[in-house]
């Protein structure tokens, strides 16, 4: 990622940097990152802003190394995700937030190393859960199909 602020020129001796100087430089970096609108190293990303090294994404903001994502914000190393926020190394996740190393999550928050979860919060290493409750594979898919219809969600 290109850094807009060159801190090396600001501080010739990092050992002498005060807390106030550090905090000020850090705030400037955060501000510059969130204000970035150009895409860098992307291939065929459409209507994305601040995307880096991503391919075939649409309507995403501040993503890095994502592929085939739609409407995602602040995700890294994700693929085929949609309307997700702050996810890391996820695939095929929908409407999820702050999840990592997971796949096929829908409407989940803060899950890690999970697959096939729907409406779950804070799970780690779980498969086939709905609202944090475990289901066998067949029951999971039947339950999720019914919930999608009830909630007016499209099939993924």
Task: Give a short summary of the structure.
The chain is an alpha/beta fold and 156 residues long.
Written overview of the protein:
With 156 residues, the chain is α/β, with parallel strands linked by helices. Among the domains are: 37-86, no CATH class; 103-151, no CATH class. Helices cover 23% and strands 9% of the residues. The chain has helices at 7-10, 19-35, 137-151, and strands at residues 103-106, 115-118, 127-130, 133-134. Strands 1-2-3-4 form a four-stranded mixed beta sheet, covered by helices on one side. Strand 3 (127-130) and strand 4 (133-134) form a beta hairpin. The model is unreliable at 1-5 (pLDDT under 50).
Q: What structural class should be given to the helix and strand makeup?
A: alpha/beta
Shape: elongated
**Treating each run of at least 4 consecutive H or I residues as one helix, how many helices?**
3
Question: Radius of gyration in whole Å, from Cα?
Answer: 19 Å
């Amino acid at each position: 990622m290109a850094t807009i602020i060159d801190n090396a020129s600001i501080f010739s001796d990092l050992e002498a940097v005060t807390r106030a100087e550090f905090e000020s430089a850090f705030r400037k970096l955060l501000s510059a990152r969130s204000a970035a609108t150009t895409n860098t190293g992307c291939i065929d990303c459409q209507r994305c802003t601040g995307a880096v090294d991503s391919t075939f994404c649409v309507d995403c903001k501040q993503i890095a190394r994502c592929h085939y994502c739609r409407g995602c914000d602040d995700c890294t190393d994700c693929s085929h995700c949609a309307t997700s926020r702050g996810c890391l190394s996820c695939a095929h996740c929908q409407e999820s937030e702050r999840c990592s190393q997971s796949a096929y999550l829908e409407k989940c928050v803060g899950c890690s190393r999970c697959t096939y979860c729907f409406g779950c919060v804070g799970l780690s290493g779980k498969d086939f859960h709905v609202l944090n409750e475990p289901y066998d594979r067949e029951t999971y898919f039947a339950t999720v199909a019914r919930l999608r219809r009830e909630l007016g969600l499209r099939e993924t």
